[in-house]
TrEMBL record:
Organism encoding this protein: Paenibacillus qinlingensis
Protein name, per record: Creatinine amidohydrolase
Organism taxonomic ancestry: Bacteria, Bacillati, Bacillota, Bacilli, Bacillales
InterPro entries, per the entry: Creatininase-like_sf (IPR024087), Creatininase/forma_Hydrolase (IPR003785)
Similarity comment: Belongs to the creatininase superfamily.
GO MF annotations in UniProt: creatininase activity
């Protein structure tokens, strides 16, 4: 049994961890269409692997005391609903849910909360929820999507990858899924060509530009998966886990300071 898993512990054990200064790590993901070739659970499978292995690594090295809560596997995916195969909360509902999850953890005694995200549509609401919790309660709160938290690992992936990183249902995510569970990749349906819409995320960091009906890329994915491989996915996952684990350690070190 992994003792860093919140849901494997009893209420008394969780209370003891909160009193001992553990941080609660809350993983966020999605259930949504990923083109014709990938499972709708792609973001959740990727996110669960990264969050679990990063917490395992950070706690095993003794550099952080972390408890990983159950993953929230439905997110803000309204821009995917038109394609089918998608479950979504509205942004208003999702923001409220994240705040209430945080408030539940605070009532459980936690004073350190970390959100780690695996779906782009969740990011803005996650960051807002983290900010609101830190404003309204005497606690530390951190939030990041894995592609931001992993830092150098993602920079390297962007340099090597011909498609968008992280993108949506393209070469990058397909490689990760081939590494995690190739049974969930319909190899005969992997698209060889794709009309890339490179303006989707804005040309400058922190900006947004979008158009109705085109926020997911052409036909619901951002780039071709023709060159995806399990070997590439394994390398990316290992580097991302290392990067996220290091971010957890850095967050925890900061959170050890007084927050009053």
């Amino acid at each position: 049994m992994d003792t860093f898993l919140f849901h494997h512990l009893t209420r008394e054990e969780i209370t003891a961890c909160a009193r001992a200064g553990y941080a609660a790590v809350v993983p966020l993901a999605a259930t949504e269409q990923h083109g014709k070739h990938l499972s709708v659970y792609t973001d959740s499978l990727i996110g669960e692997h990264i969050s679990t292995e990063a917490v395992r690594k950070a706690t095993a090295e003794g550099k952080a005391k972390l408890l990983l809560t159950p993953q929230l596997s439905i997110g803000c995916s309204s821009h995917h609903l038109a394609f089918g195969g998608t479950l979504s909360f509205s942004s208003e509902t999702y923001l409220r849910m994240l705040k209430e999850i945080g408030e539940s953890l605070i009532k459980d005694g936690f004073r350190k909360i970390i959100f780690i995200n695996a779906h782009g549509g969740n990011a803005n609401m996650m960051n807002q929820a983290a900010q609101d919790l830190a404003v309204q309660h005497p606690v530390w709160v951190a939030s990041a999507s894995y592609w931001n938290a992993a830092g150098d690992a993602m920079t390297s992936a962007r340099e090597e990858n011909r498609g968008m990183v992280a993108g949506h249902a393209g070469r990058f995510e397909t490689s990760l899924m081939l590494a995690l569970d190739e049974r969930l990749v319909r190899k005969d349906l992997i698209p060889e060509e794709h009309t890339e819409l490179d303006w989707i995320f804005g040309s400058r960091a922190g900006t947004f530009i979008g158009c109705h009906g085109k926020l997911t890329g052409a036909d619901g994915y951002t780039d071709s998966s023709e060159a995806a491989s399990a070997e590439q996915g394994q390398a990316y996952l290992a580097a991302i886990v290392d990067g996220v684990a290091q971010w957890f350690v850095e967050c925890y070190a900061t959170m050890e300071k007084e927050c009053t």
